[in-house]
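Good morning C.,

I know you're traveling, so I'll keep this short. The sequence:
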Amino acid sequence: MILSRKASAPSTKKGGTFDRWWFLLAAVVALILLLIFTKPDPFMRILLYVKAGLWTTVSLTGISFLLVMLFGLLVALCRISKSKVLVGISTVYVEVIRGIPLMVQLIFWYFAFPSVIQGIGQALNIQSFIDFKTNAISMAILGLTICYSAYMSEVYRAGIQSISRGQMEAARSLGMNYLQAMQHVILPQAVRVILPPVGNEFITLLKDSSLVSVVAVADMTRRGREFMAANFIPIQTWTMIALLYLVMTLLAGRLVAYMERRFKMEK
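The tokens, ready to paste straight into the viewer:
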């Protein structure tokens, strides 16, 4: 339920301006196909070698982003809550995480975190902690989620605070409690407001997922490094990797743009 009638439904206007950036996406795909068919060696070999890493990149980004959306919302709600304890904890979390580079965080979770758990296990004589081993993909997802949730929480907070206080007051006057008002009135409107920055965060996360290659995750970047080291053709290898990333980011950008138009609030 959204109390603002003008914001209650997506725009129904038809025949909008065509997104010309689709032509750029088509051009990049055509360039990849041209390289593959005109010079299958090495470009087809590169594509086949990094294919598994491509799916790792996509799945890693997708899972991480879903967790970021959920955890970022929880942190945002804590930051705007009336509890000073929750506000303090969530604010410290955001400030600390945003102040540490993502690569450092990924390295910490993969290399340092197991040592911390094992140290606790030795101190408390807990065998399961002493035998604790990490999984590279799990630690990469954890690192990306914790890092990007701090940024996403600020996006959520800005969106929620952009909604008129009268919306909350009107919802409460209808008998809703705070959580019901948030779920049915505030958040549906806030989500439409934050679609552009959320889309930007997704694209940034997709690109930054290449950093997980430093913690033994066989993503597309790591597979590219392995292929280059084995074949000594850096120009062709990184040209193909760059084009594949560009296809993914352009496609993500076009889907976000479509959602913005689809759910744009009428004025």
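Safe travels,
E.
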